[in-house]
Amino acid sequence: MSTPVTANSKAPVAAPTGVAMMAYKLKKNLRTSTPYLMAGGIALWLIAWWLVSEKLNLPRFEKMPGPVAVLSELFSIDPFLGISIFTAEYYEHIYLSCRRILFAFLIATGAGVPLGLFMGWSKTFRDYAFPILETIRPIPILAWVPLAILMFRGFEAPVIYLATLASFFVTALNTMLGVDSIDESYFRAAGCLGAKRWHIFWHVVVPGSLPFMFTGLQISIGVAWFSLVAAEMVSGDGGLGYLIVDAYMNNVTVPMVIGMITLGFVGWFSSALVRLLGNRLMQWRVRALALEGR
To answer: Which end of the chain has the least Cβ crowding within 10 Å, N or C?
Structure first.
């Protein structure tokens, strides 16, 4: 029997989605101290930078451009040194670096995550693969530069290869540690319920390793950035690393610092995207941490 609708009945309220959800979360964050502490930390950093480089001219800092000079050039419509947010060249460097990082990160994730999962799941496979991984991993990325130039043609492939290599090791090892962190009782429980090995892999191993996996991916994308910059400095043609070393070679420090600051913010933004994706794929973990007050 259907329930009669009266004047006092209230229709169910739909949960906010999309832009409304983003606005709600932003409003909620503004009620906490986090954004104001972040703004205060950036302000203190700028003040300290201004003091040591422009006001006090401390030793080792007198040749370093201060925040006034850098920000004036960065936001200039007609920059004296040719790089600002109003020039197309600035965004071309950002685009080239971001494109290379995207390719390197996707390749490293596509190869490193399955390798880490299988190394953590199968002791036999780990005995074969882990010694090779641990032998190659300590080799510095710059040591691979000559070999990368010999192996690949052009400017793009060697740079992407070097960034991929650095990111790959972090991704694989953190994923393997994620599998190792899963309580053995989950495997026994799944076996007692009649689950096959493939079902255990998809429903126990993969979800259980996600926290370590996404921690590794956040570290991985940061490692990919500084490896990319080193590669662009040596064998690149454009990009933020190329901008930094080109400014240094031409003895102009302001574009060099602009490239460094831009690199920091772009790297921070890319790490935040990986963290956001991880939180969306691990809502169960977010709820568990919230219940624990963390």
So the answer is: N
The C-alpha angle 112, 116, 118, rounded to 5 degrees, equals 120
Write down the architecture of domain 88-291 according to CATH. Answer: Orthogonal Bundle (1.10)
List the domain boundaries for the chain.
Answer: 22-64, 88-291
101 confidence band (pLDDT: 50, 70, 90): very high
| Two structure tokens written together for 9 | 């009945």
Residues with Cβ within 8 Å of 255's Cβ and at least 6 positions away in sequence, in order, are: 73, 81, 82, 83, 243, 246, 247
With 0-12 / 13-18 / 19 or more C-beta atoms within 10 angstroms meaning exposed / middle / buried, residue 260 is middle
pLDDT in tens, 117-160: 999 888 899 999 999 999 999 998 888 988 888 888 878 888 99
Q: What angle do CA 95, 97, 98 make, to 5 degrees?
A: 65
Answer whether 0.85 is exceeded by the pTM.
Answer: no
Distance CA 203, CA 198 (A): 9
